[in-house]
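Researcher: Here's a chain I'd like modeled. Treat it as a single chain, no partners, no ligands.
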Amino acid sequence: MQHFGGKSRQASRYAAIIKKGGHESVCSPFCGACSVELELARTGVQVLASDGNLSTFMFWSKVKATPTWRPAFVTYEEYQTLRYSPEDSAEKFWAGHALSYGGRWFEGYSAIIKRKGRRTEHVHEAAVRWLDRITPLPTTIAFSHAVQVCLMPPVDAYYLDPPYRGTKDGYALKLTENVWSWAESLPGVVYLSEYQARPGWTIVDERQRHHAMQDGAPKTEYLMMRKK
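Model: Modeled as a single isolated chain. Structure tokens:
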């Protein structure tokens, strides 16, 4: 799925870079839509994909266990019910991520978008086609709910794509200092995707991206690597 902050367009390139590092196992503690993680798993690397959002874990677990499962269409009323429900579910991830504006968690209902002068965009149908393309999932990927699980098994490397901090004016592109500190405390090799270069990290990939939800100006997105 293509959305703000997503890595669908960079996935194959990032996976190739990480694979070239000779890693046999990689942990991703912020897997989200799993674009890079799935590409990496398809190369034969053992991937542990984790996320603190329980609905995210439930979605990927269901997709892996039942490759033919496809979520039903979600109406606006159902979207609102899922949004405010205290219960986690695979369907909640589908509504909150795949059917939300820009892929941002329950940012706004967008299963169907009608634009002036343009055809109606059926986002739900596009998301289902995305599921058709990625299933069945590779056997080399496993899922976990607890981010801390990444620190338990011995892995060769980490891939970090943390969610960006939100502000009332839109999306902040700078990670908080505690995320940087945590990333720099991890053992071994760490790859991190971010819009701000950081001293002590080696830039292994950089591309300019345009974001209409920002001010339209291009932003440089980096894939950085650090070895402790």
